[in-house]
Every structure is written in C-alpha cells, then in structure tokens.
Predict the 3D structure of the following.
Amino acid sequence: MPSCFTALTLCPVSSLEKIFPDSDVFSIPEYTGYTVLKGETLSFQIAYRMYPTQYVDMFPSQDGNIPFEDGRYRISVSGPLEVTIRKVSLIPSMLPAYPDHDPNYLRAEPGLFPDLLSQDGCSRSSAMIHALPSCWQSLWIDVEIPPKFSPGTYSFIIHAADFSGAVKKERSVTVEVIDAVLPKLPIVHTEWFSYDCIADYYGAPPFSERFWSIMEAFIRTAVRRNINTILTPIFTPPLDTAVGGERTPVQLIGIARTGGEWSFDFTNLDRFVRLCLTLGIEYFEMAHLFTQWGAKCAPNIYVQEDGNTIHAFGWHTPACKAEYREFLHAFLPALTKRLHTLGIADKTWFHISDEPSADTLDDYRAAKEMVSGYLSGFPIVDALSHVEYYRQGICSHPVPSTSHVHEFLKEDVPGLWTYYCCGQGVDVSNVFFAMPSARNRILGVQLYLYRIAGFLHWGYNFYHSALSLYPINPFTTTDAGGAFPSGDAFLVYPGKDGRPLESIRLMVQSEAFQDLRALTLLESRIGFEAVKELIEEGFGPITFFSYPKSPAYLLELRRKVNQKLKETNSPDQTG
C-alpha cells in the first residue's frame, strides 16, 4: 500500500493529439463535442493516468471520497452505436527527423512515440488498462456512422470500472450526426503495397493460399481507410532496391519462352484483379517497366525456359537492350488485351521509372519511346519533380512531390497528382512519427484547394531497410535502418494473425481524405469559391507550405463545413 492515495483521471481528447507519457497535465486539451456525416468514421481518444492525492483538487471526484486505486480498470464506451477501442502503444524511433527539419515537429530526439493502435487487452467496445502515476497513456475510439443512421445529437458515455464492476469515473462525448452522406473519394489515392514484405515477414510463399489471405486482409484495411488504388506486381516492382540487388520475387504473371516464342499465364493476375475489385479497389497501377531513378535497366523478371526458371532480365539488362525490347513487344499487347478483358483498362495506369532525376532525362525518354506505342489510351504516370520532363513533353502525367507541386501548378498540368516521401520533411505535410497529427490531416484541405487529381505515397507496408538490403522488425526498427524518418516507410504494422495493425498516422490520414470528401459535397451545394472562403477564413491563402498548424483549426473547419451542410440540406440531398 503506497503512502499516499491515488485517483484516476480520464481526459477525452481529439484524434489530433499525440499523447506522450511525459505530456504536461495542462497541455492536453479536452475535446468533447463533434459533428459528423453519415458514412464517416469518427475517431477520438481517452487520455488517462493516476494522480497522487495532492493533485486531487484539480480532478475532484463527485463525492470527495478518494480511496486508494491500484490503476487497473476496464474502460468501456456506451452509446447508440457500437464503438471500437484500441490502445495507443509507444513505438521506438531512432530517427524522428532529419537534421534540417523545421520547427513544426513535436520532438526531434530519439525516443518513444505514440503510434501503434494495439488490440491487446481490448474487446470491441472495452479495454483493460493499467493506469500509472508516472505517465499519460491513451485509448483510441472509433465510431462508424452508418449511411442510413438517423440524424441527431447523441451521447457516448465513457465508464471506468474496477474489477468488481463498480464505476469509478465517467466522462461523456457528444456527437451530432448531420443528415448528409459522405460521398465517395473524388480523387485517386495510392499507397504502394510491398508484396514481398508480407511474404518475408510472415514466411508465406508468394501466391500461396496463406499469402493470398494475408494480402487480402492488408488490402481490405487500405480500402477502409480511403485508399482506392493498388500497385499491381505484373513484375516484382523495381522500387527501393540496391543496384545489383533483388527483392523476393512477387511476379504475378507467369512468363515462358519456348523456341523463341513468348507465352503468358495471367491466372494470378485475373485472381488479383477480381479480389481487389471485390474489396473496393477502383484503380490499378502496373508496376514500373524499368528500374527506379532513371530507367537504366529492366526490372527483375523470371521466365520458364526449357523446364528451368531463369532470371531473364534485371540489373544485368540495359533498358534498351534488344532482348528486352523484343520481350516488351510480345508482352505489352498481351497484357493490355487482358486488361480490357478484365474490364479495368479505363482504370489502369502505367509507370516507366520512379523518381528519375534531371540527369536521366534522356534515359527516361528512350525508355518511354520503347513502350508508348503499345500503351495507346493508357496514361503513363510517374513520380518526378523536375518540371522539364513536363515542359519537353516527355511525361504528360507527372507526379511532383508536395515540395515541388507549386512549380507544376504554374504549368497548368491537367489532372495533376502529387506525392510525399522521406524528402518532404520541411514545411510540407507528411506522416512522420514526430510530426503533429494536424500536419498530417491538413493534406486533405490542400488537395481540395488545388484541385489535385491524385495522391501517391510510397510506404504502406515497407518492412525492409533502405534499398531492401535486409528485412527489419517494424515494431523495433521504424526508420528503414536509419535511412528515413520514422513513419515514412509504413502506415500499418504486421499483426500476429496475418492482419494489419493500424497506426495513428493511417487513421489521421484517412480523416484528411474524409475532409476532402466533405468539402467536395459542400462545393456541390454552395460552389468552390464559397468553400474556399470558408477554408481560408481567419487565416488567409493556404499553400502546401503555409497553412494553419493547430488541431483547433481543423476541428473548427469540419464543424463549420458540417453546419453548412446541415443548413443547405434539402429532402433529395440527404441519405
């Protein structure tokens, strides 16, 4: 028995707070009132800790009688809808930020960061916790609002009960459900899927039944979180691979050569496409036809020849080598015909090379000229940030980084996409552990304001070191072996049962895309200029570099947007 009594405190906070163990008691802003649309996922948190009795005056109990509590409770949430409760777990980071980071980071020193949403000790709507007097912890609460749910204002009651079932503390959160249904995402959103990483981590041979099951779970989660596009491994994607190196082959298409004639087995591609469409994927990107950073070589491709599997193409194959040209001459017409048969030709993009530099412009041009004749009607889209690729007509569908997107906006590129990766750590939005969640979520507003047609991020589940030199444990190594700021390489963790575990960052990014959907709905009622005025009210023009940085701005913006939707409702606009 300790010498002083302790008491539990519960603090409802928004999804935009990151609760560190050493957070100051006065720095955690309570937030208890929300408005949401039907079809939306509302997320909030419950921060908790024990306090010695000398602090009880700050957190008085109803009866003033504070017996000793050992910190073990069952937290549950009751209301008109079932909720999902998960624990926010601390994950280590040795590289939270590059040395040239800007001031808008929560902290830049190595340490523990709240990120993983763990189900340990949690049932669907309750969680067993052990509150400690030395640190803050938090629970993550999700409320899924059905599209046909009745509008109105509802209360969700948070209960903290001891082992006897006696309720020791209660708090409440109020949610107003607006009579409007969140529309579908109006842009392309892709998070590149590392198929070899799930094969390696789980020891599941590519395209074994276990592999298909795990892959399905990871794709299902992506779709739930506003990701509608999938990187399709027609070959093992030639990404993040050291020159001369190789990643575990995950080639969907069977390729054979007999007597100099090529043949192709699309069985796995057919199954993959059918699965993705069933799960809700809308768009498909074919894996890059040439190596990263400038299209110097062919990707790693395996071929059946004379009863043997041979490594037919790869780093040993210059991009314009005659043998690879002849292969593409046979392969691309067969592939595009299959895409038409599968009914996805009008929803498919091709890639040449990821992130070519200013020095590889001629190599990229030559590679594209090799294949463009076979890809009539298919957009060729690539992440690149050198505007000359567009100005010279070499790439009609460039995807610049958010650090360079304003240069391309000046060129009036039609249907412009943008992306971020490890290089976007100064001033712009990103999903690093060390960044405030508001910096993650502001992306939705920016994409809306600049009419961006697609967003790309490379790291959905990359569990390797940089350049794929060796596999890593993402629960302990979160910076790709000291190469990328923690959070850049993956948004989900590999769960024990083959199902992904989500992160705070994935959930907040999904909120950004919910914001985009809500803004699009409001625009359909009051017009773009009126929505823009609402967004910039009290701040002024917003760019990818200059934007409101506080959680309060985003929470208030959604309140104003939802209120406008409520005011502009008519019988045929509600769900």
